[in-house]
Amino acid sequence: MTPIKVMVNGIPGNMAQAVAGHVLNDKRFQLVAHSLTGPEITAAEQVVAATAIHLIRPDTRDGVIESIKETEGSFISVDFTHPAAVHANAEFYCRHKLPFVMGTTGGDHNRLEKLVASSAVSAVIAPNMAKQIVGFQAMMEYAAANFTGLFEGYTLQIRESHQQGKADTSGTAKAMVRYFNALGTPFSEDRIIKERDPRTQHEQWKIPKEHLGGHAWHTYTLDSQDKTVRFQFSHNVNGRDIYARGTLDAAAFLHQKVLANSRGKVFSMIDVLKKSE
Fold this sequence. Notes:
alpha/beta; four-stranded mixed beta sheet; 13 strands; 2 domains; Dihydrodipicolinate Reductase, domain 2
């Protein structure tokens, strides 16, 4: 079987490097040795698992990408850049007819959907690429739709901790707010407790030192009005492998959609899980 070519953008970012490493170790894929990077990056290349990746700054990428397309042929772009670059990158992919998987959090999802819908490409866009966590979210979405007001009268606390370099509040935590609202607990995104201090993470949260640079810990706590009942849901991830594996499954899924001539369609990780047509 011919390997699926993948270009991972966002290197030298940690998540992008993790995905590129998994691409290199997965026989389903072949890594395109180029990566779109940010304007602040001065290095010309980054070595990932003994493979040199050529870094492309924003001011040169429009010209360079056409040369890469001529050399490599068709490929899937994977985006793990910066939240501030989400819309500009999506516009770039659509303009250059590059089907893409966007795991970068942030941005306006409706705006992204409209952008892709008016383009000649399809994309997988998701705030969380971990399939098991996405499955948990789907269960919560089902509960929100079918058991409206189940936790009426309960108070909610949402705590999330990520590595110090994560700029935005967890997209997964934000999505969970909507489900708990439907379940009867008024709560706004600005009340999410966001921890980014490594000392607090280790000493108070008990996150292992070796994973302070890459983790995602979430806890959702519901207390009854009289404090006699508590429900608590947690999903704690150390490292980035779970997201990288999910990202590759999303790339394989999108590749099949490209072969089926899908255009102008945004898929979610739920679609990837279901392998929907």
